[in-house]
Q: What sequence folds into this?
């Protein structure tokens, strides 16, 4: 039974209270465990929506669902949530959206946004070719999206995660790139404070140029505007890039840029294309002992550059020849 009132379709004045009452209304009659599970999981979604000052059901759009799914996926990538729980969180948000739209809304794929740990890449990542990502960066600048252009540059040319690129101090990065030809990635890195170690990544000429020009035009310390918190920036940057990426023939997933960085580095260090790029694949058994050692060393080195501690994680970025 609805508590009454106009807010949230009469389910309550606050979003948290309204969601609880909506679930009780729709899952009444015995589905208590299901209702309680959804209610517990949706507390995170409610907190996410508060970052957008959303206080009523009518304001929730599919874009918020997509942004939330990507944000949960990021938390899973950082090890803050398990993949299984992340999928459950997104599934519960889908359930809420389905109830709010009476089944007319289209949900999102939990596994598509949150991911799978056992994934082995079999296709070339988007943004590998300079002829693809350079025009994208230039196009974003021409459209007045300096901050997004900077994000594409940092993620692709330094192999940074979205959060790392977002929190990178542009002034410090510009000085370091000019002085010693590298950028230092530390803020937003994966793991606890004891595990986080600054990563010194060689800055190619294009990144040095971007930091000196586009980065210098950005008035804030980072690419995040002063009037946005991280969650708002996350949603904004993903929404705009999702709209514009097709113009440049690129995927809208920022993580693809890290995979492109890894594939490029693997070929530079070993002289052999990444398994996900070359068809037919150069099988591991066909490699010489020297090539196998070179591949193992390169994978470990790139894993460290990406902020991982295991060489086998490169299977998700570059594929496997085994």
A:
């Amino acid at each position: 039974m609805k508590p009454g009132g106009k807010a949230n379709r009469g389910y309550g004045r606050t979003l948290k209270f309204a969601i609880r009452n909506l679930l009780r209304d729709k899952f009444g009659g015995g589905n208590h465990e299901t209702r309680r599970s959804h209610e517990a999981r949706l507390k995170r979604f409610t907190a996410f929506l508060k970052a957008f000052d959303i206080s009523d059901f009518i304001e929730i759009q599919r874009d918020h669902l997509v942004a939330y799914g990507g944000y949960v996926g990021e938390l899973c990538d950082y090890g803050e949530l398990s993949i299984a729980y992340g999928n459950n969180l997104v599934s519960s948000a889908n359930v809420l959206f389905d109830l709010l739209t009476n089944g007319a809304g289209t949900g999102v794929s939990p596994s598509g946004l949150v991911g799978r740990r056992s994934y082995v890449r079999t296709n070339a990542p988007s943004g590998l070719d300079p002829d693809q990502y350079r025009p994208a960066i230039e196009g974003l600048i021409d459209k007045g999206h300096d901050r997004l252009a900077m994000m594409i540059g940092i993620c692709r040319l330094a192999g940074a995660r979205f959060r790392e690129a977002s929190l990178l101090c542009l002034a410090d990065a510009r000085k370091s790139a000019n002085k010693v030809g590298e950028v230092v990635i530390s803020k937003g890195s994966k793991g606890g404070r004891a595990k986080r170690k600054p990563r010194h990544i060689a800055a190619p000429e294009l990144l040095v140029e971007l930091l000196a020009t586009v980065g210098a035009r950005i008035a804030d310390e980072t690419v995040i505007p002063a009037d946005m918190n991280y969650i708002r920036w996350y949603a904004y940057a993903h929404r705009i890039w999702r709209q514009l990426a097709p113009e440049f023939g690129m995927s809208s997933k920022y993580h693809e840029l890290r995979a492109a960085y890894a594939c490029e580095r693997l070929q530079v260090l070993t002289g052999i294309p990444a398994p996900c790029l070359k068809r037919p694949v150069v099988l591991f058994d066909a490699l010489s002992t020297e090539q196998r050692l070179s591949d193992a060393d390169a994978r470990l080195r790139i894993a460290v550059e990406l902020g991982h501690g295991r060489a086998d994680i490169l299977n998700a970025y570059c594929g496997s020849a085994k």
